[in-house]
Amino acid sequence: MEQVINSPQMNEEEKNKIKDKIREELEKIRNYTPKVGVFGDSGVGKSSLCNALFGSQIAKISHTSGCTREAQEILVGSEEKGGIKLIDVPGVGENPERHQEYLELYESLTEKLDLVLWAIKSIDRNNMASIDAFKKIIAPSKLPVVFVVTQADLMNPHREWDIKNNKPGDTQQAHLNEKVIEVSKIFGIPADKIVVVSASDNYNLTELVSTVVKVLPNEKKFAFTREAKDENVSEDAQIAAEKGIWDHVKEKIGNAVDFIMDDVVDIVVESAKKYVPKIVKSVFRFFF
């Protein structure tokens, strides 16, 4: 939708045209199918992470051809209602002889992805191949990236895990904090884009979803919250996704919003009632 330049003399036909464009844009956002690249070496728990994030309705739908190895494309949800496609790529550390081939595969995928989730096992120390791939391919692409430190429950001393409160013990937490600092330093990314999780314990998954919502463009935030399991999506994340939609609409229609504000509010709220009825009252905060 092109940005509209308008004046106070906007007639009814012009207003209706803009309202129709807003409805079209909202439907496009509500039904968008994002592609998320899931990177990380074998054994880091990528499958467990995806299952914990999105639930059991995950099925392989195709293979995206790469070089010698292929990227596995997995559909979460239904494409008819949007869904989300996870692109699971082979880890560069799996076969040193194919390092260059994997780099070429990664590069071929960057233009197709909306987000990268890069998983690193909490107790792994050898990340040289991943560092090389990230700095050569992913970092220059400017794709939104969230690093996920997986299997937090295995961090030493692993028997210290606080089962009652479902969180790391004090010493574990200190070691996990050190891991975040280490990952931030060696990959050259901000610590606030690194989330520590334990998929087997459903630990910190809401924080992961919230972090993803923060890094995604406004028009793509909702699709991720739509497909994540309900228990992994906080109310704040839902509200942030809805605000992203509203900010995107304002950016698209420009000054026109000032002349048809009441109509725009009705359209956006009606859309929210349909898709996120639990937070409709919070949506009103965007307008007043």
From TrEMBL:
UniProt keywords (A-Z) are: Cytoplasm
Q: Which domain of life is it from?
A: Bacteria
Stretches assigned to the G domain: 35-150
Keyword NAD, does the record have it? no
Which GO molecular function annotations are given, in alphabetical order? GTP binding
Q: Which InterPro entries match?
A: GTP-bd (IPR006073), P-loop_NTPase (IPR027417), Small_GTP-bd (IPR005225)
Q: A biological process (GO) annotation for this entry?
A: tRNA methylation
* Gene3D superfamilies named in the record: P-loop containing nucleotide triphosphate hydrolases
SUPFAM superfamilies noted in UniProt:
P-loop containing nucleoside triphosphate hydrolases
Q: Name one GO cellular component term.
A: cytosol
> What protein name does the entry list?
G domain-containing protein
